[in-house]
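Appendix B. Chain record.
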Amino acid sequence: MGRHPAAFASSGRRLLLVRVAWIVIVVLALGLFAVSITALYAQRSAPPEPLRAGLVQLGLPIGLYAAYWSAVMVVFAVACIAVAAVIAWRKPDDGMALLVSLFLVLLGVANAPNMQALMEVYPALGFPAQCLLFLTYACLLLFLCLFPNGLFVPRWTRPFALVWLVSIPVTLLLTGDSLGDPGGVWLALIILGGLPIGAVAQIYRYARVSDPLQRQQTKWVVFGISVAIVGQVVFPLLVDFFPSLTRPGSTALLYDLADFTGITLCYLFIPLTIGIAVLRYRLWDIDVLINRALVYGALTASVVGLYVLLVGGLGALLQARGNLPISLVATGLVAVLFAPMRDRLQRGVNRLMYGERDDPYGVLSRLGERLEATLEPESVLPAVAETVAQALKLPYAAITLKEDGEGREGFVVAAAYGSPVSAPIRLPLVYQHETVGQLVLAPRVGEESFSATDRRLLDDLARQAGIAAHAVLLTADLQRARERLVTAREEERRRLRRDLHDGLGPQLSSQALTIDAIRALMRRDPGSAESLLLDMKQQARDAVADIRRLVYALRPPALDDLGLVGALRETAAQYGQNGIDVSVDRRSCRPCRPRWRLPLTASPRRR
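Structure tokens predicted for this chain:
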């Protein structure tokens, strides 16, 4: 149980009062229990006539029968008290733990056989017995409303619990019924009406509020209570299917002892599972117990039902009842069908709890179908994550892809399914001995890791996911290459436009102006005209050089003549032999153009 600032916990003087009240109630309950055991022995010393006949038939003394009943109740009470003592000792400052321990003590000492015998043999102790039963029901309801963290969840359960607790004593005063009397209709309706509300509160808490650890605690408690309910229902129903069990004599006696012992053992699961849940010891084992309980519980019910149907059907068909051959035939058919039924039930329960881990071929086939149906690359990895999570019933599954950046290397989430968890398990996705990503998985609620069966299926799925992740990475690289190609093409177009507009265009425009100036100076100043003609000649050479440079920049001829490697070698040789001329033109006082330029280098502008 987790502690909470607003939880059912106390401190200081209030905690001291709670402890004192707890001790007083426990002491009084133990005192009444001691008296109730003597009353139970006295009551069972006068068994009904069918049971007495059975004792005589088997040669057993009546005192042994009464002692057996008393011993079983003492053992049950000692087990409940022992678990309650451990909880109170381990968590003495937790108010919820004190409530749970008090409930277990009352469950052990204030059970129906004891209290009924106490009120029957000692009528003067009827009122204390009524109070003890009322406290037991009150603790049960509070336990259902508050477990495991001591909060009323949802909030409307608080006023409901108050009304329910007040309605029981009011009903007792108005009707005069007794809590130990099963014939009180109104009282039974009130009590039975409160238990479903507590169950609804636990379901709501499990689905909306509880964390994984609290859900495992709830599973343990629900498992114990379910076993008790099944025992309480199944053993009395045996009489309906096998009326001969109540036949006076040894049969009725043995059924009475088996019914009493079986129900008590089933109720013993309640303190044991509550103790495990509160003390949080090996909470993950509950799934195995639930699995086996579901399988063999369903198998038992199926076998009994099949046997009854076969016996009844064959008896009606052959118009015979109680015929030994019919029973033998029914037993043989049940024996033949037992193993196939168990295997089928085991597969069904495993599929319910663990998904499709026992059918790896089916999972891989379904994953292949999903990948074949998925046409868009961005939908491939989400389909893989969803298939893995649904196949194994995992709360979270994700796929991360390897990302190499400038000075950093890591994994980014590419697809996810479910709600993220704090500490997931990561499995590498490998393609041709290279890690391309990770399969990030959260174990089922209450499990710390995956079983060997889960691992085998996950290894197969990881190989398929690795291929899919590699394909997605290749698609992403191809998309980025296309984008870079388009970007480079656009940049090259802009560069050509810029060189033509800002370089070659002004040169040609200046030549037209120079020609006009030469025409004006030819008659007046032939020397100046000649000098302008020489400048225009140089400008024409520069324009031709720029045109050649632009053409060379589009695709160097060396690539066609020598190939890429040869073109690179020739360029390196030019660097080593010629270098770049950075001499200064004294007339213009600026660096001359280099004799050799890189293909993508723009020529300087002329003034």
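Further analysis of this model is presented in Appendix C.
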